Prior knowledge:
alpha+beta, 4-stranded antiparallel sheet, 10 helices, 4 strands, 56% helix, 6% strand
Amino acid sequence: MDDKRDLIRRLMTQNTVxxxxxxxLLFIPAGSLHWPAAWLFLVTLGGLGIVGGFWFVxxxxxxxxxxxxxxxQKDQPKADKLxxxxxxxxxxxxxxxxxxxxxxxxxxxxxxxxVLGFALFILSLAISFWVMRENTFAAPVVKIQAERGHQxxxxxxxxxxxxxxxxxxxFFFLGVSLLLGSWWGAxxxxxxxxxxxxxxxxxxxxxxxxxxxxxxxxxxxxxxWCPESGSVMLCLIRVPQGASNVRYEDLxxxxxxxxxxxxxxxxxxxxxxxxxxxxxxxxxxLHIPAAAKLxxxxxxxxxxxxxxxxTCDPAPALH
Length: 319
């Protein structure tokens, strides 16, 4: 009981300080406290933060404790520390710019966009709560939590995308920019997208290196680089006789495909190959265009003894 009371006290203190800092970075540049949209943002964020915090005190106090730890930690990769060092000032500039926008009325945004922004803001918070409800290891920094029995999470939003928290964060920054009526704030959002894309790479490298099963999760996750709906992705995988299944499976994980959207085409081939066809297409008799040459990087990564030819060119629709 005492531990929970201490956790609640820390939650209330941290939430109050956080909302106060955000308010100062908005209202001081704005030069006025008369900014209803900013108050709506702060009250909603602070209120839901407290409600969500009390909820996690009951269902997962370990995760809440982890999320209240400092943003720079000793077991954190140097690259992620650099991310935090860059992200903090960018976020401060984003808030200050929106405050100046409110003062000088640079944007003049319509109320319809602000309503849309509020909806995106709420959506981002809902995604965040969903992620934390599903993933007890959703720490604010990149690290392997061996002391907490860190495991790969494949359910909930992680069955759809590998980085749902970052997806929700994009909605947050765009939504808040629109809610506060700032096109200039919205214009800064692509910078956050770039930062999160870089952090996703840092996180995946760390988890592949230190978390058993994560490489397999990447290979079987629902996301992929292509194909798009209505196009055909064909991959001719030539597996020489005697090649091990382990090698083949490793190769399949390296391909930029969504395994859940593929099926095997069983038609025999003279070259000991097999076709992986997109499930969006129903027919099996498909024309295979000239295979694209592997890039130099792809050739370096290609497992020895297995050759791959791949094309992402959209083929004519088969109807």
